[in-house]
Amino acid sequence: MTQTVAFLGTGSMGSAILNGMIQNGTKGSDIRATTKTVASSEELAAKYGLSAFATDHQPNANSLAVEGADIVLVAVKPAYVVEVLDEVRNVISKDALVISVAAGVEIKTMEAHLPESVAVVRAMPNTPALIQQGVTGISAGSRVSAEQLAVAVSLFDAVGKTLVIPEEQIDALSTISGSGPAYVFYFIEEFISTALSHGFSQEDAYLMVSQTFLGASELLVQQQGDPAELRRQVTSPNGTTMKAIAVLQEGNLHDLFLKATSAALARAKEIAQEQKQ
Question: Fold for domain 5-166?
Answer without folding.
Answer: Rossmann fold (3.40.50)
